[in-house]
Description:
The complex is a heterodimer.
Chain A: H1 2-15, H2 18-38, H3 49-75, H4 77-83, H5 88-117, H6 124-151, H7 159-187, H8 192-216
Helix pairs in contact in A: 1-5, 2-3, 2-5, 3-5, 3-6, 3-7, 5-6, 5-8, 6-7, 6-8, 7-8
Chain B: H1 2-32, H2 47-74, H3 80-116, H4 124-144, H5 149-177, H6 195-229
Helix pairs in contact in B: 1-6, 2-3, 2-5, 2-6, 3-4, 3-5, 3-6, 4-5
Amino acid sequence: MIAALARVELTQELRRPGQWLAALLFALVVLLMQAFALDSSLTLRPDVACGVFFVSAFFGMTLLESSRAARERASGVAEAIAVSRAPAGRIYAGKWLAAFVLVLAIDLCLLPPLILFYNLPLNAAALAGLAAVTALAQAALAALTTLFSAATHSSSAQIHLALPLLILPLSLPVLALASIGGHAAFEGHALSPFLKLLLAADIVFGGLGAAVYGKLAGRS
Amino acid sequence: MKGIEGANGRMGALWVLYAAVLVSAALWAVFQAPVAEPTTGGIAQKIFYFHVSAAWVAFLGFFIAAGYACAHLLTDESRPDLMRARAAGCYSAVEVSFVFLSLVLLTGPVWARPVWGVWWRWEPRLTTFLIMWVCYAAALVVRAQMPRREMRDRMMSVYAIAAFLNVPLVYASVLFWREENQMHPRRIGLAPEFHLPLWLSVAAETALFVALWNLRRRICLKEEMIREKS
């Protein structure tokens, strides 16, 4: 059921890829904009690249998930989830899986411009380390985003405002860990402390989401 | 119901009185305490008593909020009064703790400037508190924009749990994030003459927190009653 729900969500995105493309472009612009804030030398430092990468991808994901939540509110999906008999934890897992795949796709598209503009060395071991950090970090961020997008259905504020406000502060430790962990991968340092903490974040946020999603989705 | 309200009211008044006495005693003890060495801030060090106590109270409040949040989410929906009371307990604990957390962030730089020479350092404990402040500020802002009481209470409860679970992660992350040495001492080594004002300040701010929390919780419940009647 989880895979089927994720497939439905992803198929919808594929049918109308405009929102995903907009989120990708937004993330790309954020990636380029951060170059202006970092330093004025002609070749940017690779040591800031991972931070830039995760922040850009996160902004892209926030935009994408806000748009998806707005679409769900407009089309009555939120009400359908509230009255559905399917277990809330499974619905949450399906939605989380779809969000995770969508943000990984954004990450994948952001990687070539990141390597190009931020002079990242093409090192297979480092890229594998970055991939592991990315997967664990995005799993935690997708868990948070999926959970709180359900809460924004009943906010009178614009979803585009409420969702980022709720998830950005809670995401800061994951973003920090991912940025430093990614940098550690390129420096050849041990990744296990970062991976363990990110895994802990996945378990905490994923577990919390599965347990309380139904309440935020309006179930009694 | 009126009997319970009356008992709560009397209890609330007692806490206000208790807090007033303890705050007065703490202020007296703080101003009687000797001035610290110039290297630890001189006269500015006196802010330490309020700063440490406020940090303790903020943590206590967020812990209470998370506890009430769990209780609220686990409460049987056939008992709406109990659900409402627990949701009010959670929200008011977050709101009052947020005030104390803001005090920590305001008093910190006042003390840091003469001791460290800067208003702010991106060191682990300061960063942890700043992230916590942003987390709870966001929850309060979003909550204020949610018109449906039931969903608003649920969102606040889930957020209070998530933010509290996030605290160890925030601390672990900023330890990696900031390479500078921790400026805050791991253990506070105080001369005996500073003990009394510190413990009195902790007791006073804890009592003040309980008094304010009680008041805010009752106001929350009254607000809901008025909203429902109108």
